[in-house]
Design goal:
four-stranded antiparallel beta sheet; globular
């Protein structure tokens, strides 16, 4: 065996070992994807269950994705990193953009909410952390891509926002907003004592159509189209958050949730305004990316 082949085999062994150590492979056989002419009915049955959830309302819950015997380690790891969070104490609209006084006062762009929680940025998370090992694991990424019915997904090129821990201290909430990315993967690493439900409005907008009237109704308190989901520690969630406005309700006790950002292209970068507000800093990469216009012409 040549040096390159031996190196690749060793890497594959490490990647598989990561899955076996941390993932509930009995329920989620991430390591069993077929190659070539092989068939793996159990893998594709699992993928199809997730796909059906996503096709329904853009949200899929994979309960007990993390093995029960590493739940405590997962929680402790995120608790140790939580003090590194940057806390944003701002008033933000659902698009995390500036106010536009030329619009009517009840326009969603002019609806600002108090923002009271923080994020541990990607560049502060150690390479050997469980969440980073999962985030960069090719088998895990391939499973996520299959669930999303995408041929391939990429890590964010964003050096700050690709992998983050959302830190919600006691009695805080994450207000209504849309995601920069079309989809997001979340891993609950510490459930609060009570509250902290994930609430969302399935597909309230679409490319080329902001649907401001429907967004306004939700912001004004009409929750007829709002769905609510409770996540436990070790649960994995796939969510199409660019088109579905969402929030996290007020919680009692600290709530920690890791956000794993992937994209259909290898050059995904958060907007300048959003990154500065949420993480307190930007890089030259963010400035350069701001000069490129989004293809879907959506806010945020």
């Amino acid at each position: 065996m040549g040096t390159n082949a031996a190196t690749e085999t060793a890497k594959q062994d490490r990647d598989i070992d990561t899955l076996r150590r941390f993932v509930n492979l009995s329920d989620y056989p991430v390591d069993k994807r077929p190659s070539g002419e092989q068939e793996s009915h159990v893998y594709w049955e699992t993928v199809e269950r997730v796909r059906n959830q996503l096709r329904g309302d853009g949200c899929a819950l994979l309960s007990n994705f993390i093995k029960s015997d590493v739940i405590d380690l997962l929680r402790e790891e995120s608790e140790e990193l939580a003090p590194e969070a940057f806390y944003s104490d701002n008033n933000v609209n659902p698009y995390v953009t500036k106010d536009d006084p030329s619009l009517p006062e009840d326009h969603p762009i002019r609806f600002f909410q108090h923002y009271t929680n923080g994020f541990v940025a990607r560049d502060l998370i150690p390479d050997d952390a469980i969440i980073k090992r999962l985030y960069q694991n090719p088998y895990f990424m391939r499973f996520i891509a299959d669930c999303l019915e995408e041929p391939v997904i990429y890590e964010f090129s964003d050096p700050i926002a690709g992998l983050v821990i959302n830190v919600m201290p006691d009695d805080t909430e994450l207000p209504w907003h849309f995601d920069t990315n079309e989809f997001i993967v979340s891993l609950m690493t510490r459930r609060p004592q009570e509250g902290g439900e994930f609430q969302y409005c399935p597909n309230i907008r679409e490319p080329g159509n902001e649907n401001f009237d429907a967004v306004r109704e939700v912001l004004q308190g009409n929750h007829d189209r709002v769905e609510s989901l409770t996540l436990n520690t070790g649960d994995l969630q796939l969510f199409k958050g660019r088109y579905s406005m969402h929030r996290v309700a007020s919680a009692k006790g600290q709530r920690l949730c890791t956000l794993l950002g992937y994209s259909k292209t290898p050059d995904m970068m958060g907007s300048l305004e959003h990154t500065r507000k949420i993480y307190g800093r930007v890089t030259q990469q963010h400035i350069d990316a701001e000069n490129q216009r989004r293809q879907d012409n959506l806010m945020g």
